[in-house]
Design brief:
CATH architecture of the largest domain: Orthogonal Bundle
Number of domains: 2
Helix content: over 70%
Structural class: mainly alpha
Strand content: under 5%
Number of helices: 11
CATH topology of the largest domain: Tetracycline Repressor, domain 2
Number of strands: 0
Distance between the termini: 72 Å
Radius of gyration: 21 Å
């Protein structure tokens, strides 16, 4: 009897996890299409295929859902950045620069929806609110090992990056600058392309190249 109850609880928990994941996945796409301000709980429930009463068992408000989506999305983006740039371990800065275009543009293509969501989220939320979300975000960030920091530290050991640069601060600056510019060029891609006459997505890898060149010493340090 006890074994049966444990099995039922496990199945129930697994079902709840799958449904929660489905809610966040559908909500992410819905928020990008509609905007967080104009979204409605009943429409999220309809997209997921559950009743409003069921949706309210998981989340009280659309803001709660948006906060949960942000934790999920940011974790996915940071994991991909770490995975992508960690693959450059052992390359010189010049070799890294030569690969930036291809991989940065692929990142923008593969993660366009998620980056668009983070732009909407940053615009909608002036502050995070509940401590529960802040704790969840801190936990997400704790799993992210900034690959730019590791690259900078390695190059400093070889005297190719100025030792006056703090690897932690510089690494975070590159990450935040990459995401901020990616948000803008994806949200306003058509308008920027019309205004300037070129594909604005190419500005993102160019920014990365400028960073790579900017952190290098004019002459190698001994």
């Amino acid at each position: 009897m006890k074994s049966t109850l444990r099995t039922e609880r496990r199945h129930s928990t697994e079902h709840q996890k799958r449904r929660a994941e489905s809610i966040l996945k559908e909500a992410e796409a819905y928020f990008v299409e509609t905007g967080i301000a104009d979204s409605k709980m009943e429409e999220i429930a309809e997209r997921v295929g559950v009743s409003r009463q069921t949706l309210y068992r998981y989340y009280r408000t659309k803001e709660d859902i948006a906060l949960a989506v942000e934790v999920r999305v940011l974790g996915s983006i940071l994991h991909r950045l770490s995975e992508l740039f960690s693959s450059y371990e052992g390359l010189t800065l010049k070799e890294l620069e030569e690969k930036i275009d291809e991989h940065t543009l692929k990142f923008l293509s593969d993660y366009e929806q998620k980056i668009r969501f983070t732009a909407l989220f940053d615009s909608y939320f002036q502050r995070y609110g509940e401590q529960q979300f802040i704790d969840a975000m801190k936990q997400t960030l704790s799993f992210y090992e900034n690959p730019f920091r590791r690259i900078i530290e390695r190059e400093q050991e070889h005297g190719r990056v100025c030792r006056t640069l703090d690897p932690v601060i510089t690494g975070e600056m590159i990450t935040h600058s990459l995401l901020s510019l990616s948000q803008r060029v994806l949200i306003r891609k058509e308008a920027l392309e019309s205004e300037y006459g070129f594909n604005p997505l190419h500005v993102v890898p160019l920014q990365m190249k400028i960073f790579i060149r900017g952190i290098q010493c004019s002459t190698p340090e001994s």
